[in-house]
Description:
Number of helices: 8
Radius of gyration: 20 Å
Low-confidence stretches: none
CATH architecture of the largest domain: 3-Layer(aba) Sandwich
Number of strands: 9
Structural class: alpha/beta
CATH class of the largest domain: Alpha Beta
Helix content: 40-55%
Shape: elongated
CATH superfamily of the largest domain: NAD(P)-binding Rossmann-like Domain
Number of domains: 2
Amino acid sequence: MKNSLSQRTINRLTQYHTILRDYTKKDIKYITSSQISQLLHIDETQVRKDLKNINCKGKCNVGYNAKELKDIIENVLDYKIVKRAYVIGAGNLGIALSKYSKFSEFGLEIVALFDNDKSKINTMIGEKKIYSLQELGEQIKKTDIEIAILTIPNKVAQDVADFAVKSGIKYIWNFAPTIIKTPDNVKVWNENLIGSFLQFCAIENIC
């Protein structure tokens, strides 16, 4: 089902999931589409449409069972399937991502980091080792990991992406502030942090 959903729908479902996690932790049993729409400042009709698309039905005058809806979204978005990944770039952002323990709740396991800085190679970030970038292909052969998270400067992003693809990477989550080109069989998601911030400023009219 996930493949039939638009990126915007998937993005909204992840936001619904965040709300539902809070509700279940507080032991609140039911949630309405109106409550979700108010928390996210979106149209209630859109919320109901999204939930209908994942075959979730609420109870009249009651709403949706929060735990059941949370579980449905997790199943639709494959949260329970573990996706193992490497971080390429052991700078501040790469280290922060590798330390973020909540990723495991969404099925992402960061296994190791890679960098070209000799002072960082063979050191540890918690239980995760930093390898030389030149060892990427060798490690991929051992682990069959196909996902790389790029947290590197834009001036080297394309070269590193090319090297990662040649080493066997099939999916790239790109935090570098540039658009990288890859073969058609390699999927890239560009995480534009500056763009998101500027969009936030424009929406909230922050001068």
